Predict the 3D structure of the following.
Amino acid sequence: MNMKKTVLITGSTDGIGKQTAYDMALADYQIIIHGRSNEKVNQTINEIKETKNDASVEGFVSDFESLKNVSQFAEKLKEKYDKLDILINNAGVALKEKELTEDGYEKTFQINYLSHFLLTNLILDLLKKSEKGKIVNVTSMVHSTAIDFDNLQGEQAFEGSEAYSLSKLCEILFTYKLASSLKEDQTTVNCLHPGVINTKLLKNHWGGIGGSVKEGAENLLYVATYEGIDQVTGKYFVNKMPQSSATVTYETNKQDKLWEISKKMVEAYLK
């Protein structure tokens, strides 16, 4: 019988996600790698196995620019696994220009937030089957301090870094709303700012100003695996400490409104 804890890390063929997958595989977790390309998923698996040849690691390819693709990914996970212990919603992009996905939504918003909203809801039952299911959303200290529901898709105005900050605000609002709705369950939901880390995303936008990927992964690992905070839910962590996020994130009417809008956006895939 497999006693290893199973963890899914979205966007784990690069940056912090990849480092976290590597560290958790070495710590004997069963790892599910996710990426957009078959090549990068296989390369990541091979790199982990080169260090630990008996590592329990599998990979799935899914493009978060497509809600249909996310839905198919969830179906494959449900066919393959009877439970999931940890879900780390980490995949993210920062785009300079406004682009729309095949679903008609702004790309940053969909990849960073909406696809995670859909995936999490579709596989929630797998997490509830774990004794202590954990959902960890990777957000950022640059999250927006206000939300304009009429400009979620850059309808009025679009600026790349603002779209990124908005997507990270949405992740926090989602974290708090989901945490309160799962109060009766054993499943916890937290989010974190991993640090200003030298990922491809950061370099493209802000230059190489950050710390190491290892540092970012350590912050992530703490929230995902540290047993001392097993009961903690609905928190935003910075440097392994719960911190306050922007005031707007605690406004339950904003949490509820975003949830309703998001549900409507993905309703074709929510059975």
